[in-house]
C-alpha cells in the first residue's frame, strides 16, 4: 500500500482548492498569483495534451481545461483524484482523466501516453534527489516532439526561507521543513538538476516576493506581473520552463 503523506498529516484532497478560494487574501493570493503567472508558461499549448503530476485539488484542470484537448491528472492520493473527479463533474469538464499513481509508477505510462506539456507544480521539493532524477529521465519518454516541462517550487535562494520558518513557527500550515519539504532548490540548483537529466532551460522567474501580501486581488496580480518581468532573485516561488536537449 502506498504511504500517503497528506493523509498522515491531515491535508485533505480539497486543500489547494480551499486555499485558492480562501477569504484570507494572503492565502488566496499566493495560489491565485501562481496560476495567473502560469498561464504565460502554457498558453502556447492550446488544444494539446497535458500531464499534471501531483495534481492535488485539480486547480490546473479547473482553470485550464478549455485550453487543452485532454488533461491527465495524476496523483498518488485517492482523496485528491476523487475530489478532482467531483470538481470536473460539477463544472461539466469532460476532458480530464484522473490516475492514482505514485512517482515511481510513471514509467508504466511510457508505452501508452505522450504529452505536449508536463506540469510538476509544487512537487519536486517533496522528493529526494534520486527520485527527482528518475522522474525527469522518465519524462523524456512521455513528451511529444516539441513538448516541454513546466515546474514550480519554493525558492530556497530567496525569502522563502523566512516564509517557511514563520509558517512552521506559527503553525500556519502543516509542518513544511523536513516533514514535507526534503529537497531545497534555488534557481541555479533547479537549472542544474534539469540539465544533468537532459533538459535545457527556456525561461524562469521568481514570484510572490511581496505581491501576495497585498489584500486587493487586482493590485496583487498587477504586482506579480511586475515581479515576473523583473525576475527578482529572491522571490518565494520559482516558475520555470524546460525542454529536452537536442540529441
TrEMBL record:
<dbReference type="Pfam" id="PF13489">
    <property type="entry name" value="Methyltransf_23"/>
</dbReference>
<keyword id="KW-0489">Methyltransferase</keyword>
<dbReference type="GO" id="GO:0032259">
    <property type="term" value="P:methylation"/>
</dbReference>
<dbReference type="GO" id="GO:0008168">
    <property type="term" value="F:methyltransferase activity"/>
</dbReference>
<protein>
    <submittedName>
        <fullName>Methyltransferase</fullName>
    </submittedName>
</protein>
<dbReference type="InterPro" id="IPR029063">
    <property type="entry name" value="SAM-dependent_MTases_sf"/>
</dbReference>
<keyword id="KW-0808">Transferase</keyword>
Amino acid at each position: 500500500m502506498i504511504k500517503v503523506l497528506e493523509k498522515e498529516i491531515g491535508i485533505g484532497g480539497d486543500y489547494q482548492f480551499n486555499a485558492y478560494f480562501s477569504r484570507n487574501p494572503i492565502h488566496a493570493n499566493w495560489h491565485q498569483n501562481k496560476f495567473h503567472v502560469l498561464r504565460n508558461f502554457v498558453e502556447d499549448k492550446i488544444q494539446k495534451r497535458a500531464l499534471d503530476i501531483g495534481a492535488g485539488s485539480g486547480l490546473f484542470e479547473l482553470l485550464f481545461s478549455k485550453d487543452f484537448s485532454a488533461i491527465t491528472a495524476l496523483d498518488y492520493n485517492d482523496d485528491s483524484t476523487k475530489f478532482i473527479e467531483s470538481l470536473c463533474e460539477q463544472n461539466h469538464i469532460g476532458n480530464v482523466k484522473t490516475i492514482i499513481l505514485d512517482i515511481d509508477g510513471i514509467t508504466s505510462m511510457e508505452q501508452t501516453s505522450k504529452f505536449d506539456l508536463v506540469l510538476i507544480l509544487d512537487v519536486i521539493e517533496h522528493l529526494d534527489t534520486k527520485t527527482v532524477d528518475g522522474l525527469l529521465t522518465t519524462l523524456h519518454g512521455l513528451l511529444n516532439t516539441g513538448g516541454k516541462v513546466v515546474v514550480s517550487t519554493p525558492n530556497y535562494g530567496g525569502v522563502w526561507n523566512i516564509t517557511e520558518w514563520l509558517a512552521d513557527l506559527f503553525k500556519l500550515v502543516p509542518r513544511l521543513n523536513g516533514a514535507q519539504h526534503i529537497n531545497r532548490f534555488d534557481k541555479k540548483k533547479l537549472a542544474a538538476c534539469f540539465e544533468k537529466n537532459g533538459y535545457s532551460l527556456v525561461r524562469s522567474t521568481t514570484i510572490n516576493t511581496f505581491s501576495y501580501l497585498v489584500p486587493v486581488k487586482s493590485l496583487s496580480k498587477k504586482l506579480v506581473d511586475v515581479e515576473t518581468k523583473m525576475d527578482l532573485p529572491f522571490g518565494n516561488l520559482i516558475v520555470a520552463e524546460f525542454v529536452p536537449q537536442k540529441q
